[in-house]
Specification:
heterotetramer, A mainly alpha (535), B mainly alpha (90), C alpha+beta (316), D mainly alpha (212), A: 535 residues, mainly alpha, Cytochrome C Oxidase, Chain A, D: 212 residues, Four Helix Bundle (Hemerythrin (Met), subunit A), two-stranded antiparallel ribbon
């Protein structure tokens, strides 16, 4: 007979769909983003199949354009942005700060409903005929020339945007107001520092996207002409507004991953994170400076050269805090007791792939080189190293790490390690050739291409098939473990955080008594013994 | 505060706001050239500060509340600064 | 050019070589960082694995700030160097050489329409002479396109409603890819073409063999009269409008006190949005020709007005 | 009357501070939301200041000024109502919020009159726009901005009116006190913010170009 927990409290469907328990909302989110991940992945699979040959053979250009648009829209707004914050974050934020729930539990549920509604509208746009603008919705193509369901898709993203604003708002207020006694800012786990920084971006950047998309929709059906050169509008204004959101949004899609990795590296090295304050503040620095760099997407767009110089300079600056994090993670491993459980494998893969993604980001920040490789496969490879190599890897790492807490079951370690390794190789095989394609001058969003590029495309497609299998594996063994896995103890990893000092899965109200925090996070003895934060 | 009477500071702010409204409309009809825009925006800022400080009780708010209130405007300034840097130098 | 596994695309302009050198610099610094990082990670992972009880774990580094300061400073310095390097190359790309040969490009879904000064037209091809700098004056009829020549390491977006320029100076005869690099709809991936670099004499021969109804300036002049522009801008016209002879490349004082160089973009804007910038001392009388002149006609009129300045050099 | 805090809070004070901070965060979001639109306005106004001045002269400054006074007054009433509610003068607070909501409705009605006049003058982009003169392009863009900005603002007012009505009704039934007043305080913050947005819109829409 197990104690009652948030999963067994009430099993009716109603209790799930009207829950205000952050843990249940997190599970709802996890289920929905998994669905979107595989929809976006299906689109990617067809794209990679098509690109195996230079000619058009599987789909028409119109279908191809719809496929990469859907892949982008779904993966960015319906998987990456909610991935770590809305699932892992939602689950562990109150647990990590010793609270009974988020500050606004009903708002949290509302945010999930908005997400589902936005996703539904977007999927409807897909099945009603699709959208062919690319995820960037560039005007005046999106406003005047596209013959696809732009308004519907934009509406879906607009609604989902409010869902992320509400999540961000909830996290910010919760972290400010609901911390357990003794939990000062410098005692917060680094995951919370990065989620806090992420939330700042969510709250301050997303509304600008909302306004931009609204203007696109109005331009399209009400002809307001704000982005229409024929009416005196300026297409570059769209780009400014769009990237004011979308560049910081890139940090929404990586900061939470950095937070997860900070947790993982420390736990599996049995050591405190090296340079805690530097890692913490570098998250904040990325969030703030990340707002000063958006124009590096516009170096060849007709923006003034002066603006190009400013944005290039700031882009180099924003890379510094990321470098600081990488150095500190590596230093954390120094003289630790390193264990190679699956989450740690993901964390190590993250550091490697993120570093490659980050360094190639410097190529793109560098003005004269960006002129050459922007809008080529170099960019595609670069941001997949950050988003997939970085964020998705971190998501899987975090998912495995907190899996025992979420489900009360252990995942099968052997399969998990195999999947981690397979993902790492499949990923590199898929995306490394794309760097070379970019350096050879292959433009992105090309349905047909000159034959000399084929050999690298074939390699990339081959890698993608490995990656597809590797991403399916966790679905099976994690699903299996939910019912047949070994029961998890409350603290299987001997970690220090508050979330491990309550049973797995936690009871509905998280803690029997509010914990009192007495220690820094990551307090390990010289022998690697964990000293929980409330001990 | 007695029953049925508004608190003094609210009443004074309200009258001040209406006065500023009158002034800004009057000023907009004076031929000041480019300064017209500056005056209009300065008065708008003044009115907003009154609303924020008195009606929204920022005057008594904690430092954290004031930071939160200012944050939106700081980020707005980033957006205007960098976007206009492009437009002014084209 | 076809090898089984292509690894490198040779750069065929001086700018391309400079960009390749920059690439080498970026690559070298990246590889240095990666090797260092992977070496340390690998070494720590092996030596400090939990199973290795013998590893020395005493004397852990406690104070971290001097480490933090040193690697922050090192990265910052390296980044500054790379920034300056990339920026000065980029700024060089902004100024076309004075003797560059102007060629007009109009982009539309999904083709590149090119017209040479002599009136020769081509589609999805651009013939240029070897050894001479070429300056493209580009505009778009519909959506944003991007003119991309990988072998020259350059590209620039072609934005509707304005004029953008791009220049290069090829140093080897040959045929190179031209791509549209900004997604522009259905046949984006088919909006490609060829850049044909020819010996000077071949190029002149090629020019001479094209069917031409008149030079760009002549055609532009015809349109100039057809739209009745001379009614105001002509000598001795009843309405006082700025004289256009010798206008191109000059600094024009505007009514708001600022000064603009009369480049292609200025001339174009003055035709389409005449009231946005009024030349000092003139009335805002000219009607807008927005929507009344096609993109192809517009470039011819611009070429005509430029020809009134005697030569076709880009403005300084 | 809820005298105990919700589950996730330790005490009423924490609950109140949390609610307030939440609303301030939301306001920051709203600032950036309207900010994106204002950037568009600034870019085009800087591009053609005279065109925008000419366009602004076609706005109805009398209605605009009255509407500004109406909103400022309603804000004042709301601020007063919040004070009253905290002093347990529930009836008074309910009445004041009711008045404020009515002023909000008056604002919307006047806005409607204004839209109708602009329709008569063919100033509505796409739907019915006819403007002779050299500055037509800028006038078009100005009125695009005008309708998007005032339309979104009116939507905020409409939501605010409903909120004020509900909160006013609750206040009238004595629901709020010194101890529990988060909803009324937070609703007030929202209403004042909508007022601030209007203050800036007024300066940008109605005032340019009046002197010349």
């Amino acid at each position: 007979m197990t104690a009652r927990n948030y999963l067994t409290e009430d099993n009716s469907l109603r209790s799930w769909f009207f829950t205000t328990d952050h843990k249940r909302v997190a599970v709802l989110y996890a289920a929905s983003i998994t669905l979107f991940f595989f929809i976006g992945g299906a689109a990617a699979t067809i794209i990679r199949l098509e690109l195996a040959t230079p000619q058009a053979d599987l789909v028409t250009s119109d279908v191809y354009n719809r496929l990469f648009t859907i892949h982008g829209v779904i993966m960015v707004w319906f998987f990456l942005i909610p991935s770590i914050p809305a699932t892992l974050g939602n689950f562990v934020v109150p647990l990590m700060i010793g609270a009974r729930d988020l500050a606004f539990p009903r708002l949290n549920l509302t945010s999930w409903y908005l997400f589902v509604l936005g996703g539904g509208v977007t999927l409807y746009a897909v099945f009603a005929g699709g959208i062919d603008t690319g995820w960037t919705f560039y005007a005046p193509f999106s406003t005047m020339y596209s013959n696809s369901h732009v308004v519907l898709a934009v509406t879906g993203v607009f609604i989902a945007g409010f869902s992320s604003i509400l999540t961000g708002l909830n996290f910010i207020v919760t972290i400010h107001r609901l911390r357990a006694p003794g939990l000062t800012w410098y005692r917060l786990p680094l995951f919370l520092w990065s989620l806090y920084s992420t939330s700042v971006i969510l709250v301050l950047a997303t509304p600008v996207l909302a306004m931009t998309l609204l203007l696109v929709a109005l331009d399209r059906f009400a002809g307001i002409g704000i982005f229409d050169p024929a009416r005196g509008g300026d297409p570059l204004l769209f780009q400014h507004l769009f990237w004011f959101y979308s560049h910081p949004a890139v940090y929404i899609m990586i900061l939470p991953g950095m937070g997860v990795v900070s947790e993982l590296i420390s736990v599996y090295s049995r050591k405190a994170v090296f340079g805690y304050k530097f890692v913490a503040w570098s998250a904040v620095a990325i969030a703030v400076v990340g707002f000063f760099v958006w124009g590096h997407h516009m170096f060849v767009s007709g923006q003034s050269p002066f603006a190009g110089l400013v944005f290039s300079f700031m882009s180099f600056i924003v890379a510094v805090p990321s470098a600081i994090k990488v150095f500190n993670w590596t230093a954390t491993m120094h003289k630790g007791f390193i264990r190679f459980d699956a989450p740690m494998l993901y964390a190590l893969a993250f550091i490697g792939l993120f570093t490659i993604g980050g360094l190639t980001g410097l190529f793109l920040a560098c003005l004269a080189y960006d002129v050459y490789v922007t809008d080529t496969y170099f960019v595609v490879a670069h941001f997949h190293y950050i988003m997939v190599g970085g964020m998705v890897t971190a998501y899987f790492g975090g998912l495995h790490y907190w899996w025992p807490k979420i489900t009360g079951r252990m995942y099968p370690e052997y399969w998990a390690r195999a999947a981690a390794i397979l993902i790492f190789f499949g990923f590199n095989m898929t995306f490394f050739p794309q760097f070379i394609l970019g350096i050879l001058g292959m433009p992105r969003r090309y349905h047909v291409y000159p034959p000399e590029f084929q050999v690298w495309h074939v390699m990339s497609s081959a890698g993608a098939s490995i990656l597809a299998v590797a991403y399916l594996l966790p679905l099976f063994y994690l699903g299996w473990s939910m019912f047949f896995g070994k029961r998890a103890p409350s603290n299987p990893w001997q970690a220090t955080g508050l979330e491990w000092q309550t049973p797995s899965p936690p009871p509905s109200h998280n803690f029997a008594t509010t914990p009192v925090v007495k220690r820094n996070p990551y307090d390990y003895s010289l022998e690697g013994e964990a000293r929980p934060q409330n001990a | 505060m007695k029953n049925g009477q508004p608190p003094r500071e609210l009443l004074v702010s309200w009258l001040g706001l209406l006065a500023l409204l009158g002034i800004t409309v009057f000023a907009s009809y004076q031929p000041l050239g480019a300064a017209n825009t500056g005056v209009a925006l300065a008065i708008a800022l003044g009115k907003s500060l009154i609303v924020a400080a008195i009606f929204m009780e920022l005057r008594r708010g904690s430092a954290l509340t004031i930071v939160f209130a200012a944050t939106g405007f700081f980020w707005l300034a980033i957006m205007f600064w960098l976007a206009l840097a492009d437009y002014m130098s084209r | 050019m076809q090898t089984w596994i292509p690894l490198w695309l040779p750069g065929e302009t001086a700018h391309a070589s400079a960009v390749d050198l920059l690439f080498a610099g970026l690559l070298a610094s990246s590889v240095l960082v990666l090797v260092l990082l992977f070496f340390l990670m690998g070494r720590f992972a092996v030596h400090y694995r939990a199973g290795n009880a013998g590893a020395d774990r005493d004397h852990r580094t406690k104070k971290s700030w001097h480490w933090e300061v040193s690697w922050t400073a090192a990265t910052l310095l390296a980044f500054l160097g790379l920034f300056v390097w990339g920026a000065q190359l980029y700024m060089r790309l902004q100024d076309a050489p004075a003797d560059a040969l102007p060629v007009y490009v109009v982009a539309k879904q999904w083709m590149w329409k090119v017209q040479h000064l002599g009136g020769q037209r081509e589609i999805n091809e651009l013939h240029v002479p070897l050894g001479s700098a070429v300056r493209l004056i580009m505009s778009s009829q519909d959506v944003i396109h991007s003119f991309f020549i990988p072998a020259f390491r350059i590209k620039h977006d072609v934005v509707p409603g304005t004029t953008e320029t791009l220049w290069f100076k090829p140093r080897k005869a040959g045929v190179y890819h031209l791509f549209c690099a900004e997604y522009c709809g259905t046949d984006h991936s088919r909006m490609t073409g060829r850049i044909v670099v020819m010996e000077q004499t071949d190029f002149e021969q090629w020019l001479a063999h094209q069917d031409v109804s008149g030079t760009m300036a002549e055609e532009g002049g015809r349109l100039f009269r057809q739209f009745g522009c001379g009614g105001c801008h002509g000598a001795g016209a009843a309405v006082r409008a700025p004289q256009l002879d010798g206008l191109y490349g000059k600094a024009v004082p505007l009514s708001d006190g600022s000064i603009r160089i009369a480049d292609e973009r200025y001339i174009r804007d003055s035709i389409l949005k005449p009231r946005a910038r009024i030349a000092a001392g003139y009335q805002a009388l000219m009607p807008s020709y927005e929507g009344k002149i096609g993109e192809g006609e517009l470039v011819q009129i611009v070429a005509y007005i430029k020809s009134l300045a005697g030569d076709a050099r880009p403005p300084r | 009357m809820p005298e105990t805090p919700a589950d996730q809070f330790v005490d009423m004070r924490q609950q109140h501070e949390t609610a307030q901070l939440g609303m301030w965060t939301f306001i920051a979001t709203e600032v950036l939301f309207f900010g994106g639109l204002l950037l568009a306005y600034c870019v085009y106004r800087i591009g053609d200041p005279e065109g925008f001045a000419e366009a602004a002269r076609h706005t109805k400054i009398v209605i605009g000024t009255i509407n500004t006074a109406v909103l400022l007054t309603s804000s004042f009433l709301v601020a007063w109502a919040v004070t009253a509610a905290r002093l347990r003068q529930g009836r008074m607070a309910g009445l004041l919020l009711g008045f404020a909501a009515v002023l909000g409705l008056a604002f919307l009605a006047l806005k409607g009159v204004e839209y109708a006049k602009e329709y008569d003058e063919h100033l509505i982009p796409r739907l019915d726009f006819a403007y002779a003169g050299p500055k037509a392009t800028s006038v078009y863009l100005f009125f695009s901005f005008y309708f998007v900005a005032t339309g979104l603002h009116a939507l905020h007012i409409a939501i605010g009116v409903v909120v004020l009505a509900v909160i006013g009704w609750q206040a009238g039934r004595g629901r709020y006190s010194e101890r529990y007043h988060s909803p009324i305080t937070v609703a007030g913050l929202y209403w004042h913010f909508v007022d601030v947005v209007w203050i800036f819109l007024f300066a940008l829409i109605y005032l340019p170009g009046r002197a010349s």
